[in-house]
Amino acid sequence: MMSRTSRFAALFAGLFLAFSMVAIDHAEARRGGSFGSRGTRTFQSAPPTRTAPAPTAPVERSMTPNTGVNSAARQPQAGLQRPGFMSGFGGTMMRGLLIGGLIGLLLGQGFGGLAGMFGFLLQALLIGGTIMLAIRFFRSQSAQGPAPALAGAGNAQASRFENRAAAQQQASSFAIPGFGGGSGGGSPADVSEEITLAQSDLDAFQKLLTDVQEAFGREDHAALRRATTPEMVSYLSEELADNAQKGLRNEVSDITLLQADIAESWREDDRDYATAALRYESRDVMRERASGKVVEGDENHPTETTELWTFTRQNGSNWKLSAIQQA
What we know:
Blueprint: H1 2-28, E1 35-36, H2 71-74, H3 88-106, H4 114-144, H5 147-171, E2 179-180, E3 193-194, H6 199-218, H7 221-227, H8 230-245, E4 248-268, E5 271-288, E6 294-296, E7 303-314, E8 320-326
Parallel strand pairs: 2-4
Antiparallel strand pairs: 1-8, 3-4, 4-5, 5-6, 5-7, 7-8
Helix pairs in contact: 3-4, 6-7
């Protein structure tokens, strides 16, 4: 009976592993994931918008070095508590005195017996309590001193937030078919400058959505170089080469923008960035190169996709796609 059970378990595990490997290979054959560069905000989550209200994961694959410190490391750890009376140097001293007193008591000397030991402990507690009260008094006095300066800093910070919100509101007020309003700017600690977009910028984003998708479907590397950054060209060309090695071709056509809005737009030195949430539909199918047979997707029914595209330009040049994030 145990032998049959063991054989059945081994067979089930083998089948599960085989199907898992097939599923992984199938998933990697399709375009997806979050890759590219968003400047200093590459590893930050883009603000939610009406088009993409759910939190978006940061870019997973990028040539931009992640030099930022983990936010969890900058936050005070919940498990760490303020040192108490029996911790630190005072605690070490008290523990030493108690241990010495106990040893002396056991040896019949030291504090002069049990009553002497309790008397000493009472004195130590009174002295320690007086010291703690003095420390708390000085801390409260020092905390009350700079309060006006902190309040002024808080007002200045709130003013900056209002200015950023006003700038972003103006940036997202341009309306073209499919484009709505964004929901905010960057991180409060971000030192980059928020910028305002014009109607021509939004038109360029909408055109790039179609140009990049169609160039990818045609496997047109020259068109991809004109519409995307060198980093994005490398990622997209890698996917095209991988499909070709598997004897497949990913065709994308009939791209229609359904809804879009600006998540954030900013400037870093001489380079501008803008992240837009795009919801669009397209006919996205995978074909066999030799026979033209559709092996994935439906060429008769378009599919709907929501992604965050980041565009960049340098010194006022043409916008190019620099990152794609899955919403």
